[in-house]
Amino acid sequence: MRGQPSNRISEKGLRVWRLYGIIQTFFVLLVAIGVGVLTYIFEWQWYIYVIAAIIVIAYAYFFVYLFPKIKWLRWRYEVRESEIELQHGLFIVKRTLIPMVRVQHVDTSQGPILRKYNLAGITISTAATNHEIPALVVEEADDLRSRISTLARVADDDV
To answer: Where do the TM regions start and end (predicted)?
Structure first.
């Protein structure tokens, strides 16, 4: 078995994933507040407040701290002349090899949060599916898109 792919995504990606976790935790907090208000109005058992608080704290721990860290540590990629290798996963680590002859086109995308951190994602399209490298510095993403496009063109010419 080959070693791990050599390249990591940007460390700023960890901050972006944590920001996504904070936004999601905010919505979980709103639901917990709603449950708390209902508990007060209908005079339900007091431990419902405790359960709601534990859920919010656990959700924040997992989705703001733990899962983004594990996800960032596992995300790796490598572009070779004949293939692209991706490795990612939270509980199950998935490794994917994409032959260059299968690459149809490569896109970069950037939402408002990625733009704030000067990051972009790359989507590699094949006939069967799309693969994404999530958080690269914009210049690195543009260079990688151009390199994959060039290598895919050469691979098509060889077929």
So the answer is: 21-41, 47-67
